Amino acid sequence: MKSNSEIWRCASLLVDQYGEMALNGAAIKADQMANEGDQEGRFIWLKVTRAVEELLSDEVPEGTSVH
């Protein structure tokens, strides 16, 4: 799960399944990876966490449109 599309797909699935709790779940997974010494895994889960934050945000990013 290294590509940008894989990160967003994972984040979307987490939000669909867990709603607001998806953010906590992704952050916990990043912490678990860090505790296991898996820095690459931690980095990927931090990306997922940021994507989840954006998906749950009510703000529309600058330069985008809502359909």
Question: How would you describe this protein?
Answer:
- This protein has 67 residues and is mainly α.
- It has one domain.
- The chain contains 3 helices and no strands.
- Helix 1 packs across helix 2 (21-35), helix 1 packs across helix 3 (39-56) and helix 2 runs antiparallel to helix 3.
- The longest helix is centred in the C-terminal third of the chain and has 18 residues, at 39-56.
- The N and C termini lie far apart (28 Å).
- The model has no long low-confidence stretch (mean pLDDT 91).
Quickly list its features.
3 helices; 67 residues; 72% helix; mainly alpha
SSE map:
Blueprint: H1 4-18, H2 21-35, H3 39-56
Helix pairs in contact: 1-2, 1-3, 2-3
Rg (C-alpha, Å) = 12 Å
**How large a portion of the residues is in β-strands, by DSSP E?**
under 5%
* Principal-axis shape: globular
**Average pLDDT level:** 91
Low-confidence stretches: none
Mind describing the biggest β-sheet? none
Q: How far is the N terminus from the C terminus?
A: 28 Å
Total separate domains: 1
**Helix count from the secondary structure assignment:** 3
Order of helices and strands: HHH
Q: What's the number of extended β-strand segments?
A: 0
Main structural class = mainly alpha
Percent of residues in helices? over 70%
Quick recap:
With 67 residues, the chain is mostly helical. It is built from three helices and no strands.
